[in-house]
Amino acid sequence: MGEITIDWEEGTYTGEVSNNVPNGQGTYTYADGSKYVGEYKDGLPNGQGTYTFPDGIKYVGEWKDDKYHGQGTYTSPDGTKYVGEWKDGKYHGQGTYIFGSGPHLGDIYVGEWKDNKKHGQGTYTFADGEKYVGEWKDGKQNGQGTYTYPDGSTYVGEWKEHYEWEGTEYDKDGKVTATWSDGVMTEK
Fold it and tell me: Which of 84, 107, 143, 172 is the most exposed place for a label (fewest CB within 10 A)?
């Protein structure tokens, strides 16, 4: 392996090559200003690497066949951040997502992911103090879970497609205030 610089229409590569393609350590600077610095295998990012987008978004972590794969951290200038496991370029496995902008600003999800969606066990903490701890399926609360409100009241029970389904709502002192059956609430 040797180190050379190659100019392509899409950008410039400087680093180790083998069989006329990037292999080993290298840096690829794209025409749009984005840059990848890290390991290559057979011309593709593989192993440890950092990709920086022109707008300041950055991914630092493991790669497989030019996709985020393994442990990695994705950060955005607005404060949005994901730290955790990736598979084929998607959040997959254990991870923490911090919302840095938009309607969910300040919310945090810590838990399991599958194909970029909350899936499995997880805790979602809202910026206003509300919190859901429980099961998720395809990005929605689904299965057993507890929802706690800022005033200390809670809903404990089953969720279906993001809605209370079979459970009990308690006030901050533990007194039953409502029950849910088949998605219908009955106040006590």
Answer: 172
Domain of 145 in residue numbering reads as 78-188
Give me the tens of pLDDT residue by residue for the chain, a chain 188 residues long: 568 888 888 999 999 999 889 999 999 999 999 999 999 999 999 999 999 999 999 999 999 999 999 999 999 999 999 999 999 999 999 999 999 999 999 999 999 999 999 999 999 999 999 999 999 999 999 999 999 999 999 999 999 999 999 999 999 999 999 999 999 999 98
Same domain, 184 and 98: yes
DSSP secondary structure, 80-146, as one string: -EEEEEEETTEEEEEEEEE--SGGGTT-EEEEEEETTEEEEEEEEE-TTS-EEEEEEETTEEEEEEE
13, 1 contact by CB (below 8 A): no
Its pTM stands at 0.93
Confirm if 110 and 133 have CB atoms less than 8 A apart. Answer: no
Of 59, 63, 57, 70, nearest in space to 43 by CA = 63
Q: Which residues pair with 153 in a beta bridge?
A: none
Token representation of residue 147: 């929802």
Same-domain status, 130 and 107: yes
Domain end residue (candidates: 15, 43, 70): 70
